[in-house]
Amino acid sequence: MPDFRFDPRPCPECGHHPTRWQRCTSIDCQNGRYDVSEKDPVLYPSTGPVWRTCDRCKGAGHEHWCPECGADLTHRDDLKPAHPQM
Ligand SMILES: [Zn+2]
Ligand SMILES: [Zn+2]
């Protein structure tokens, strides 16, 4: 379900605000990574989780973008730390 939050911080590219923030929408993503042994128990039949970095959010666990210019803000260091309340 599309369920984003507004982030009051402006876009560093175009100055538009609020920007938008949501948890990673990949269904397997758990805080930026996923367990391949759950996705493919045939290839990984043995012990415990095998973690891989999530392809969608590249390990961030969330997505953050500008609705105005489309900039991907997920990995901007200046915007990374603070997350809006979910
Ligand atoms: Zn993810
Ligand atoms: Zn922008």
Distance between the termini: 14 Å
Number of strands: 5
Give the strand order of the largest sheet, numbering strands 1, 2, ... along the chain: 1-2-5
What overall form do the CA principal axes indicate? elongated
Written as H for each helix and E for each strand, in order along the chain, the element string is EEEHEE
The number of distinct helices, counting runs of at least 4 residues, comes to 1
Cα-based radius of gyration, to the nearest Å? 15 Å
Which class do the helix and strand fractions yield?
mainly beta
Main sheet attributes: strand count, strand direction, barrel closure? 3 strands, antiparallel
Bound molecules: zinc ion
Strand content: 15-25%
Uncertain spans = none
Average pLDDT over all residues? 88
| Helix content, binned percent | under 10%
Written description of the protein model:
With 86 residues, this protein is mainly β. It has one domain (5-65). It is built from 1 helix and 5 strands, in the order βββαββ. The strands form 2 sheets. Strands 1-2-5 form a 3-stranded antiparallel sheet, with no helix packed on it. Strands 3-4 form a two-stranded antiparallel sheet. It starts with a strand and ends in a 21-residue tail after the last strand. The model has no long low-confidence stretch (mean pLDDT 88). One zinc ion is lined by residues 11, 13-14, 16, 66, 68-69, 71.
